[in-house]
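Expect sequence, tokenised fold; for instance:
***
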Amino acid sequence: MPAAHRLIAARVLLVAVVLLLNSTFYWPKLTPEAEAAGALIPHADKLVHTGIFALTVWTVLHLLAPRPAAGFAVAAIGAHAFVIEAVQSLMPLRSFDLADIVADLVGVAAGAAVWALLRRRGAAGRRVPERTGR
């Protein structure tokens, strides 16, 4: 498989994983017992929220930047944090949680920061050395 096709396949897979992870926010909880089992690690769900949003923002920026749509997409992802909680407030066995929104927004910031750091490092590694002398 040519390198260009592998790159496209990797990007499609990454987007599919991100979409699947984000869809879990809309799944109903199976049982109250399942939630109790997840409570073994305090606030683990907040880490999951942060991680999913960080991966989502990094993916969007990786695929769209430096296009103008990238900033709009990141803002839309931040707004999505509020939508998720509003929808969950209407679902059985789910609830609105302000701490989830905070965790999501931390993930948005973290994803953007990691993307910017990696981009800056990559750009620094590609710099052409200045000529010395004539």
About this structure: Residues 81 and 101 are 5 Å apart (CA to CA). Residues 3-27+40-121 form one domain.
